[in-house]
Specification:
Layout: H1 6-15, H2 24-27, H3 31-42, H4 46-55, E1 61-62, E2 65-66, H5 67-88, H6 94-115, H7 117-126, H8 133-144, H9 152-181
Antiparallel strand pairs: 1-2
Helix pairs in contact: 1-3, 4-8, 5-6, 6-7
C-alpha cells in the first residue's frame, strides 16, 4: 500500500519522523530502499531545520523588552486572577470550584514546564516535546505577535506546517479505514 511504500517512509523521515532501521516498516524494504531511508535519516529533517531557525529567532529581547519574562509575568497574573474569580464565584458549588481549580492547576503545570528549563528538558527526554525550549519561545512570540508585519511570513510558515501535520494525520486515518474496508 502507499502507507507501506519506501516513498512514504522517505516523506515521513524528511518531515522529521525518526525510525529505527529494525522497525518492521523499514526492515521489510529492499536493500536499496533501506539505503535511501538511511541517507534521509542522516540528513537534517524539516523539523530539525525549523527548530534551528526558531532557535535563532531575533526580537525575543529588544532594549528593555524581554518577551519571555514579560510573557511569564502575564501568564502568572492571569492564573492568579482566574483563581480569585473561581474562589469568589457564589454560583459554583464547592465541588465545582475544586474541579475548576484542578483544571486551572493542570494548565499552570503545563506553563510551568515551558518556564522551567529542567522540567522542559525532562519532557524532551521522555519524547513528550520535540522542539527545544528556545524554539518554543520563538514560536510563541511569532504566534502572539503574528499581526505585526515582521511576523506575518513566519506565522504563515508555522501555520502551513501545522496544516501539513493535520492533513497527514487525516490521510493516515482515511487510509486505515480504506484498508479495513478492503
Amino acid at each position: 500500500s502507499g502507507f507501506e511504500s519506501y516513498q512514504f517512509r522517505l516523506f515521513e523521515v524528511r518531515l522529521g519522523i525518526k525510525y529505527e532501521l529494525t522497525s518492521p516498516l523499514i526492515s521489510r524494504l529492499s536493500e536499496s530502499q533501506q539505503q535511501l531511508v538511511t541517507e534521509a535519516l542522516a540528513s537534517p529533517s524539516l523539523l530539525e531545520l525549523v527548530e534551528r531557525w526558531l532557535s535563532r529567532t531575533p526580537l525575543l529581547t529588544i532594549d528593555d523588552f524581554t518577551f519571555w519574562s514579560d510573557y511569564q509575568s502575564e501568564i502568572k497574573s492571569r492564573h492568579a486572577q482566574e483563581k480569585d474569580k473561581i474562589n469568589a464565584n457564589a454560583w459554583m458549588t464547592p465541588e465545582e470550584k475544586l474541579e475548576r481549580l484542578n483544571q486551572l492547576q493542570q494548565v499552570e503545570d503545563h506553563f510551568n514546564c515551558l518556564f522551567d528549563h529542567d522540567l522542559y528538558h525532562e519532557q524532551i527526554i521522555k519524547g513528550e516535546k520535540k522542539l527545544s525550549q528556545p524554539a518554543i519561545h520563538a514560536a510563541l512570540l511569532i504566534y502572539i505577535y503574528r499581526d505585526q508585519p515582521a511576523f506575518h511570513l513566519p506565522y504563515m510558515l508555522l501555520s502551513s506546517l501545522v496544516e501539513i501535520d493535520d492533513l497527514l494525520s487525516s490521510w493516515r486515518y482515511a487510509h486505515i479505514l480504506m484498508v479495513q474496508r478492503m
